[in-house]
Amino acid sequence: MRIVIVTKNANGLRDTIVKNIPSPIKYNSPKPREIMDEDKTIEAYKINVSPENVVVSPADHVFE
Fold first, then answer.
1. CA 55 to chain centre
2. Residues 6+ apart with CB under 8 A from 55
3. How many CB atoms are closer than 10 A to CB 18?
4. Measured distance between the N- and C-terminal CA atoms of the chain, rounded to whole angstroms
């Protein structure tokens, strides 16, 4: 599977993914407890991505 993500801080995102650093979900308004509990499970979900499988490229090169 290949995924393309466009972001300001690609190197920071790469490090977060490779190191499996939790990414809490943030909302602009309160949510029910059930959703918040489910979000804690999603936040801690591990995805095993090796550093050598992540390529950071300038956005103008992605669609060449």
1. 14
2. none
3. 16
4. 19
User: pTM value?
Assistant: 0.69
3-state secondary structure the chain: CCCCCCCCCHHHHHHHHHCCCCCCCCCCCCCCHHHHHHHHHHHCCCCCCCHHHCCCCCHHHHCC
Tell me how far CA of residue 5 lies from CA of 11, 14, 34, 42, 62, in angstroms: 11, 10, 29, 19, 10
**Structure tokens, 34:** 């059930």
Domain residue limits, the chain? 10-56
Q: What is the pLDDT of residues 11-56, one digit of tens each?
A: 999 999 999 998 899 999 999 999 999 999 999 888 899 999 999 9
Residue 20 and residue 43 in contact, taking contact as beta carbons nearer than 8 Å: no
